[in-house]
Amino acid sequence: MAGTQRSPYLMLANVLIPIATIVFATGFFPYKPFIAGLANFTEDGEQQPPAIFDKLIFMVVDSLRSDFVFSEPSGFSYVQSLIRSGDAIPFTGHATAPTITMPRVKAMTTGSVPSFLDVILNFAEADTSSTLADQDTWLLQLKKNKGGKLVFYGDDTWLKLFPNMFSRSDGTSSFFVSDFTEVDNNVTRHVPEELGNTDWNALIMHYLGLDHIGHKAGPKSPNMIPKQKEMDGIVEQIYHAMQTQHHLQSSLLVLLGDHGMNDGGGHGGSSAGETSPALVFMSPKLRRVGQLTTRDCPIPFREDFDFYGTVEQSDLAPTLAGLFGFPVPLNNLGVFIETFLPLWPNGKDRLQLLKQNARQMLSLVKETFRSEDFEPSTKRDNCNDMDSEGAELACLWKEAEASGDNERLVLSRREPHLEQAFAFKKFCKRTQEVMSSTASNYNLTRMGAGIVLCLIAVTASLLTLLDKRRGLSITDQLVFICVVVPYMALMFASSFVEEEQVFWYWISAGFIASLVSSTGIPPNLTGAAAGAALLLFHRIIQRWNQTGQKRAGAPDIVHDVLLPHPLLLWTLVLTTYGLVLTRLRVRPFRPNKRTTMESYLSMTAGLLSLVFKASFTAHDAPELLEGVTPGVLQIFMDFNLVVGARLVFGLVIFVLVLRLARNDHTLPNDLVHLVTIFLLTQSRAQNIPLFLLFELQAVCLSTLHLNPSQLSLTSILFSHTAFFALGNSNAISSVDLANAYNGVAGYNVVAVGVLVFLSNWTGPIWWTLSSLRLIKETMQARKEKDHSPGSPFQLYMPLHTVFVGCALVAVMVACTVLRTHLFIWTVFSPKYLFSMAWSCLFHLLITIGLSTVYQKIALRATR
């Protein structure tokens, strides 16, 4: 390879970048400490409040947003009837970010605040390091104190978190999002038998179908209401058994979501829809509590998704502890839900429940703050005046203890302990606020080491880039600086991180204008026309999918033009495929037998990809095939998606091998278009026409006769623009799993992981190859005009490496400086995860790896 690729500085930079990201991550994403062991009741001589229930049926419906149950339209008509009658007590359960299954299950079962590292572990299905086997949970307490059995059916995340916990279980993969039915039928088939069994004291179910529908087609999918009705029917079946079977007379049914979903059907971020799952407690025993307040249901939709009051998901742990008569788990930060206190007529029992909750939380406070805060001292009249949060909590605890001995605080004979109960509740609430927001135990040494390593990488890549022989003009240097410096500065502003797409849309538009001006002032007619077309296509591209936080769900081309008009959508899809096959020069009747076979195979791959996308759409969004004759639609429905995808992938690879063996001047172009067939297969149907616009932009760029440095900058800018135009953002919820199982029959962590990356980075991959194709054309022009020697690719990798290194440094420093910021776990941490993907996966595998292969092919083809 030419000089750039052999540069020791550039090699050093690209070795250090992944090392830096990993070193920083180990300091930024540590596990939170926890108290080991199992909680026991303290020997204080006070009688324990009696248990209200003896069996728990815990039904988790993944992504069950609050409005799905409480508002219209909703398929939960039976649950709504129980709410109206008072047999069900509804809440909105607040799920703190990250709104991903594993950390939410940890919060619900331990009452603690999980580490953000669980976002990464959530996708590693084979991981066992995140087990809760050594942590105190209500599952372990139920099993120990009741001497019964726990049974589980559903999302196998529970089996990973609780190994050897369940007497009977049947797990299903939570990531096989193409399955709407079997994944739930596998749970439901066990329900009748378990309702008849008497040996368990906790039946846990975790349904996944509703979440999969959201990922595939969003919350307004036509499959959503039928799935809700299915879940409602299961609730009705269980509740009928609770009413009629003697061994279930003292059972509590809890229906809840582990998290909600946003308007795009995803989750992982901190939007109102993602953090607001439904939470409903159901039992005939709750009627005396439920009838204290009349509740209408359904009720009008609320944009904040706050229905019937909000409780923290961590509040489940102490509430279940009280209702079932076991100690509060040691690491709990939840507060007993006071709505259930009237179930205990005796005021002393109510006080005891809150006191036990407060004592458990006090042990965590003492582990976190200075012990001297809790030594006997003069109590201040106002705990808010304390000089530290630890001192404030110590003051509130002393105030709560003292209130029980102060006869002046007894409010009535009927509730002699009301004031002390209020004081303990105040202590618990404030402790929950303080401890939940306490900064993680960052390892600043490792974080600093990661930043230093990345700075060395940036310096090494700059040494390569600033080599005088590289030919980077002053103008190109200024343009590059105008991209890098503002981008680095914006990484310190949470709002800009959330709306990063705006930066790329604006900076790319300005760059296009600068390209036109480089053709001359005033620009020639061809340059002006190409620039105008580029800006027009750019404008259409940026309006294709609205993304980010503020504009998510706003009108865009996909939702307001294409989806309501399927004929237009498929016309554009067919045009895109036709252009790709035309670009491949598919002429099946050429005289050369070898090229004829390649043409046939290329055409077959393209047509199979098109049929696959139509069949995929028929399964996931049949409304987009409205007007298709029943016979044709049935063909699409019967098409085997797994086999179809494998055939497409296999044919693309096979033709690539044939083309590599028959190396000629057309190979570099054919390589781009063959990969495009794969990228179209890995894209949502409504995004496929974007590649038509990308190709038209590339044609416009070719008419401007840009130099290699300008094309390298174009690759950076247009790759990021394409990433966001496809609907991605810096939120975990924007990770698209819709095409992660193309050709995969079951969960395979490697295959699914690769497909998740490729399907979310299809746009940037296309622009990487297309910019290299344009540089290759520059190479041919150079050779024909006998310009100065040197590889036109020499600037490509140094420019990309400098940008990646600078961007990574900015995000690392921002995460370090703003580690106590309110949005550190909802904005900056997800951004760092995406930065890791850009630098370690896209940059190393695509920019460096794939580009190296392409450059070798291009150089060999021009000799």
TrEMBL record:
**Domain of life here?**
Eukaryota
This chain belongs to the protein called GPI ethanolamine phosphate transferase 2
Q: What is its main location?
A: endoplasmic reticulum
The source organism is: Eremomyces bilateralis CBS 781.70
Q: In which pathway does it act?
A: Glycolipid biosynthesis; glycosylphosphatidylinositol-anchor biosynthesis
What biological processes does GO assign it? GPI anchor biosynthetic process
Q: How is it placed in the membrane, per its record?
A: Multi-pass membrane protein
CDD domains xref list:
GPI_EPT_2
Instruction: From the Swiss-Prot or TrEMBL record, state where the protein is found.
Output: Endoplasmic reticulum membrane
Which keywords annotate this record? Endoplasmic reticulum, Glycoprotein, GPI-anchor biosynthesis, Membrane, Transferase, Transmembrane, Transmembrane helix
